[in-house]
Structures are given as C-alpha cells and as structure tokens.
Amino acid sequence: MVPSFFAHGLLRRAGIGILGGTLLAVPAFAAPQAATQGNMPPGNTTQADTAQAGDAALEKRLSALLAMPFASEMTAASQAPRIAWVERREGARNIMLSDRGQAPRRMTDYTRDDGTDLWGLALTPDGRTLAYVEGGDPEFPNDAPPNAGRAVFAGKQTVHLILPSGRNLPMGEGHSPVFSPDGSHLAFSHGGTLMVGRTGTTPVAAFTTPGVITGLRWSPDNRRIAVEVDRGSHGVIALWDIDGRATDISFIPSGLASDVLPVFSPDGQSVAFVRKQEPVFNTDPDKGRFWSIHVHDIRTGTERVIWTPPQGKGSRFAAPEGGMLYWTADNQLLYPWEGSGWMRVCAMPATGEGAPKCLTPDGAEVSSYHLSSDGKNLLYTANAGNADLWRAWSQPLAGGAATPLTQEDEEVTELFTAGSDVAVMATNVTQTAHPVMFDHGTRQVPVTPALPPGISFVTPQNVRFHSADGLDLHGQLFVPPDDTSRRHPALVFVHGGPRRQMLPAFNAMGYYSNAYLMNQTLAAEGYVVLAVNYRSGSGYGEAFRNAPDTGEAGASEYRDVQAAATYLQHRDDVTPERIGIWGGSWGGYLTGLALARNSDIFAAGADFHGVHDMTGPDHPGLSPQQNREVHETEWRSSPIADIQHWRAPVLLVHGDDDHNVEFEQSTLLARMLTAQGIPYEDHVFPGERHAFLRTYDWLHAYLWMDHFFGRTLKQAQK
User: Fold this and answer.
1) Where is the signal peptide (predicted)?
2) What pLDDT, on a 0 to 100 scale, did the predictor assign at position 22?
C-alpha cells in the first residue's frame, strides 16, 4: 500500500513472451536496434559489440533486482500473533505465513511467472485457516480475469481455503473472502451474489441482487452480514441473517446517494455507515455537504443522521485505501475526515451528541489505521513531522501523546493488528516491502530482503523547489555515484495515479517499487534522475491533492514537471540539452504533454500506457454550452492538442488488456505521430493489464527504455 485516497487507475503491454518459466530463465534480450518499430531509426551498428555487452550486464542487474522478494497483501489474525502475505519472488507469487515474526512458512507452491495474481487474503481469528483469491484482478474483480501469461484458456478467479492440515480447497469463483468473528463461517462475493458457508465446506449462494457487491462486514455476534452493493447511480446496504430462515433481502433505507463502509455496534443491533454523493462536475468546492454518517437501528428499522460535515474543507468524502469505520466499546465512532485540510482519524459519540474530536495530528496524512486488540489505542501510519517519511504510531484513545512504533530510516504506510501484536509493511533505501512485527515493543522481522551481490544503491536526496506559480514541491534526486564534476544526461520521473507519492525508498506498491529500482539503475548508468511529486498527488494535504485545474481541467500539474526540468537545468552536474522524461499512466500522460509542449526542454521520453486525449463524454448537470466549454479545456489539456509542436522521440509501451487506460489511447497517438513524421518506438504486451502482471514483461519494458534513452540521450551527448 502507498499513501493514496483513490484507486490506482486513471480512467476506467510489441514484445514476445514465453509461457511459464521464471524471471531468471528468460531468453537473452533482443535489443530494439536489431528490429526497429514505429518511426524510430536504427541505432549505431558500429557499436554493436559494446551495446550487446552492456545489454547483457544490464539484463543481469535488472533480472536480479526484479527477482528480489516483494511482499504485499498482508493480513493478520485478530486473536493470534500470526500474519500472512503474498511474496513475489522471481516472478512467481506465493503465500507466506509467520508467527510472532519468526521465519515464515510457504503455504502455496506456485512456480511460474505467468501473471496469476494472489490476493484478498483473510485469516480466521485464531489464524489456523487461511482464505485467498487466485487469479483475477483485484482492481476489477468483476471483469473477465486477465490472461497475461497467454494460456490457451484463461484461468478463473477462484477463492481458496487452506485448512490447518495444509490442504488447499477451492471454494468457487468469487473474491473478497471474509471470515465471521468466531471463524465458523466464510463469506465472499461473486458479482451481485453473496456466497456463504461453514468454514471448510463449499459455500452456497445466499442471494443475488442487481449491481456488484463491493464490501462485506460481519456482526460481532456472527449472526448477520452487512453487504455493500454498488448499483452504479447509487449504492445500498443489505443485511443478511445467516441462520437460513430469511426469505427476503433486508435493505437499510437508502437515499439518492451511495451507502458505504457499514460497521455494526458492539451488541450487533445497529449499523453505522457513510452516505456520500459525488458533486456535479465543476461544483464550487466551498459549496455543498456531500456526505454524512448515519446509524440504522435493526430492531426498530429506524435510521438517523448523527453527523454531517460543514461546508468547505472535508465536505466531500475521502478515505485512505482500506479505510473503514470503527465502533468502540464505549460507543464512539471512528472515521476519516479532512476538515482541517489533512486526512485524519476523528471520533464522535454514536449518539450524535457532541462535536468530533480528531485523534491524529494536524498537518499530517493518515494512510492506514486500526484499533488495538484491547480497544484502548488507535494504531495508525502517518507522515507526521516529515511529509516524506511515513511511520507507525500508537495513540491512546483516552488522551496523551502518540508514540512512534517504527524507525526514521524506514517507510511504513500499512498497519495491522495480530492479536496483541502490531504488524506493519516496511521498506527502506535498499529493502523491498517486507513485514515487521512488534510484540510488546520487541521488533521481529520475518524476512530481510537484501540487494543482490555486487549491486549497490545511492541514497536518494529529498529536494525542494518551486513551480512558476509559487507552489512548494517535493522530489527525490538520484545522483550517479561517480565523479560529479562532469555533466550527465538527466531524467524527470513522473508517477501515475495521480493520487500517489514517491518516497526516498522502495515503495510498498509493486508498480512503484519497480520504478524505484529502475531509477536507481538509471542513476548507476550515469543519469541524474529527479522523481517529482507534482500537485494532485497524495501526502501533502487536501489542497495539494485537489489543486485546481489539474488534468483535463487545465493540466496545471504540468507546471511542476516544468519546474523539475528547470531544477535539473540549473545543476552543475546536468547537461541541460539532454533532459528526458519517463512515467506511466498519469505519468505517461505528463510525459506526452512534456514532449508535445516542450520538445525544446525534453529531448526524449518514455510513455507507459499514458492518456493522450483527455476529452470525455458530456457531464450530467451541465448545459450544452457549458459542456462545449469543458470539452475545449479537456482538449487543450491533452498531449495530442499540441502534436504539431512535438519533435522529440518517444518510446510507447502498452498492454492491450488494460482496464485503466484504454489501449486506443496509445494507438491514437501512434497514428498521429506517424502523420507528423515524429520518431517513436512502440511495444505491445498482448494480454497484459495496466500494471504489468508478469515480471518478464517489466524486465523487457525497462530494457527497451534503457536502450532507448541510451540512443536518444547518451549517444547524442557524445
């Protein structure tokens, strides 16, 4: 997990792959100069031997780095010091399990880098039984499963159960498994169908309803499930009794909005939830109150509003990924709110009497939070005191100062409780994401990933600079480890999202963990690299995240990309005429924008699955004239609007089963570049998704990019 309040997706990968195999068993990389694509001229064949030797060394380095163990999808047992997580190693994913932070056990036996994801992990309260999802896409769980490995027949998205004996039982198609508080039952969703069964037996369909089920929450007495259902224009919450006697679906009285994040009271007789609306496009941010907290009494069927935020900051609902409501034993509701302009966790009486009290510090964002097992402390991760450093904290609910749980030399953005223990996912400059457990203050690290032999990293420098309109910006600078008295080519890296934040360490999100190791590799090859955290990203407060006129509304964040280039131009160790740019998704959009508007600044760019035409359909609630004006702004904010000014060469890489950014965004750009005679190199991964599922594909995309910049920035400098 990384600091963010939205899904990774922006809107809604030519390579030849091999079925099966692992990362270290891929065939030798075929340099693009041997088979050029698009309008890109071939490289200098007089340097073929040197290039092939360099390619082999680079492939060895990147293969070793991408093969490092990377942990994700952590879960914990609520009543036992046991955690489980997914480990990706050499392209294959497997589930690991650890007790009290001791050396882990591998619970599955997957061996192929075929893109099959493992996710949705859940443990029974005692930690003895594990559920997980094999296949599918956690971002689009109700779409057809991906087939990045190009199997003859695509796999299914299947819920599995691993029993205490180690036996692995498939439970059927679906996702998001959740155990009851006593571990006796398992529930999961499959589209609009709720599947429920006793743990260890095959679940059966409890009911089917229009829409898709997006969340499940059990009552403390194990009797009911609150089911969150997305119906497109609105969302409802269904209540299901698992005793088998129900003949009708019971719904909490709904409104013309989306009801989300249900939580039961400690006695199981009431449900609190958030009711939210999406403002009409271009609504004044200081107008409207677009969400509220409600409580539904199951016995009486009555529902009441207990709190609505005031107009202004925090009047539109936002929550950290995975954020939820908590109902404490002393009848307090804990919820996320950014009324001060910062994402904080606040509390108020479930009766609705009294004003909210925010528990986490102002001027800092919270990315993950849980109640301690005894219910006395709020455990959370936040960037308090340093916007580029995320630590875990413990805050007594009764009052008092927060205590840091983690160190200042690691980044921690995700936290869980495992019985009385606390588990976090940590990274640092040289270590990929790995779990760390705290047993009453004693630190235990089940896995300690290390850089491969012979590879060293530079320590990224946190830097600050300003945009032309005066915005204070943060970034990380990767400086080559050689003699800095000479000048180097340079690169600006722009992350995607855009609700993301790059950090001076490995990232807890696989996509950006890979980007970090690539930026380190580029620095080792002699590039000065600046990763810029531009406006509309997360980590720096609501005003920065919701900065005006970003993206299709005016691309104001491009000023921050220009500021990053200006910063590099004024460094004594950078060749100003040899600055490139690279990024994916929203970063691909900004790469395209940079080349279209400023080929005089950016000499080359690598655009991974970016958006190039920002115009969209009409916005409901706007007049025809208003929509025409909006579309004009969207067009002017698009890279292709300035295609006539584009001169610099570009590398385009896209997977053709991308569900976040339409593949046609890249085919459109390629056609327009061809018409303008602009040099480009293009590669497609058949069957790949937005965030490439196969390590094999990440390896080759990065090799292509490195070779591309070698030709366009390095060789051109000589």
Assistant:
1) 1-30
2) 27
